[in-house]
């Protein structure tokens, strides 16, 4: 009986495997890019919030969404948390970009 693959491993099965890997990498790259875009938007939103509440009186009441629950706090309590969250988001961006670039490099190898 003859098989569909040749002895050197370059038959249709190997080509299908490469095509599947290419599709999976492409999908993963798209997901990573979406996540990076989302992180960048969140950093921008945090900057807007910080710019809006910094000049206000620190004892003034404001509202903040925590885990899907809207809570009342003072600007004095909220501003450091927003600054801290923005810092965490900014720190995660380079790692996500590095991961995306690694996937892009692997995808280029398959081309």
Automatic annotation (TrEMBL):
Entry GO CC: prefoldin complex
Example of a GO biological process term: response to cold
UniProt keywords, alphabetically: Chaperone
Single Gene Ontology MF annotation: unfolded protein binding
InterPro entries noted in UniProt: PFD2, PFD_beta-like, Prefoldin
PANTHER family (alphabetical): PREFOLDIN SUBUNIT 2
Family: Belongs to the prefoldin subunit beta family.
Protein name: Prefoldin subunit 2
Originating species: Iris pallida
């Amino acid at each position: 009986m003859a098989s569909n693959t040749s002895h050197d491993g370059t038959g249709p099965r190997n080509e299908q495997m490469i095509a599947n890997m290419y599709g999976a990498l492409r999908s993963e790259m798209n997901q990573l890019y979406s996540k990076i875009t989302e992180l960048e938007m969140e950093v921008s939103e945090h900057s807007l919030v910080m710019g809006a509440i910094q000049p206000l009186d620190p004892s003034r009441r404001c509202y903040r969404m925590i885990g899907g629950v809207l809570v009342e706090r003072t600007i004095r309590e909220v501003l450091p948390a927003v600054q801290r969250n923005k810092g965490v988001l900014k720190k995660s961006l380079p790692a996500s970009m590095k991961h995306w670039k690694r996937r892009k490099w692997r995808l280029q190898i398959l081309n």
